[in-house]
Amino acid sequence: SQKIEQNSEALNIQEGKTATLTCNYTNYSPAYLQWYRQDPGRGPVFLLLIRENEKEKRKERLKVTFDTTLKQSLFHITASQPADSATYLCAPYNQGGKLIFGQGTELSVKP
Amino acid sequence: DGGITQSPKYLFRKEGQNVTLSCEQNLNHDAMYWYRQDPGQGLRLIYYSQIVNDFQKGDIAEGYSVSREKKESFPLTVTSAQKNPTAFYLCASSIASPRGTNTGELFFGEGSRLTVL
């Protein structure tokens, strides 16, 4: 069955450093992959979408890569800030299909 | 202000009772979804609807029911048959899928936290 795995342990980094979060998937060939941010007790908010024919996508301090050979997406936050502290969810997707969410990685940025 | 409104935010239920969670959107989206989130787990799909008067079971539909009588509304009923209903419930919507144009971005509500006493 399709499986999505994100870093299960919380990621703690110092302000100003780059945070890198991993999303691995198996038994699946998604055409798209989305990343969401979720704050405690709130609904997820869409951040970025990357397509299978795009190797990299950037938006301000965010960068996402999508390696269909490794079946992996990396999510980077450069110059991280305490306000970036949240849980980040990845969600592979195929056109007309259902989004399947990973369990999320909790990021904590310390001042 | 366009968006998705879920209510109530917190709900307590006694065992054996049915409860209904409300979800309303004014984004003019065709597709709507219900997810359940448990601590340390990803979102799991309960039901989804791509068009009015039609809906499909997701991965964990047992013990739940939905209706889609209006485009803007997709209420979820948690029935007494749901064995472990205590969870955080999230409603979402998206533009439905004209062939090749839907990127699948979901817009989520703020969630409803259900606790069974």
Can you characterise this structure?
The complex is a heterodimer of chains A (111) and B (117). Chain A is mainly β and 111 residues long. Helices cover 0% and strands 54% of the residues of chain A. In chain A, a hairpin with a 2-residue loop joins strand 6 (56-59) and strand 7. The mean pLDDT of chain A is 92. With 117 residues, chain B is an all-beta fold. Chain B is built from no helices and eleven strands. Chain B has strands spanning 4-7, 10-13, 19-25, 31-37, 43-51, 54-57, 64-66, 76-78, 87-94, 107-108, 112-116. In chain B, the strands form two sheets. In chain B, strands 2, 4, 5, 6, 9, 10 and 11 form a seven-stranded mixed β-sheet that branches. A four-stranded antiparallel β-sheet of chain B has the order 1-3-8-7, with no helix packed on it. Chain B is globular and about 35 Å long. Chain B starts with a strand and ends with a strand. At the A-B interface, strand 4 and strand 5 of A face strand 5, strand 9 and strand 10 of B.
Quaternary organisation: heterodimer
User: What is the gyration radius of chain B calculated from CA atoms?
Assistant: 14 Å
Strand content of chain A: over 45%
Mean pLDDT of chain B, as a whole number?
90
Chain pair with largest interface: A-B, 22 and 27 residues
Helix content of chain B: under 10%
Sheet bearing the most strands of chain A, described? 5 strands, antiparallel
- Looking across the biggest beta sheet of chain A, what order are the strands in? 1-3-8-7-6
Rg of chain A, rounded, reads: 13 Å
Q: How many strands of chain A? A: 10
Largest sheet of chain B at a glance? Answer: 7 strands, mixed
Q: How helical, in percent, are the residues of chain A?
A: under 10%
Instruction: Work out the helix count of chain A.
Output: 0
State the helix count of chain B: 0
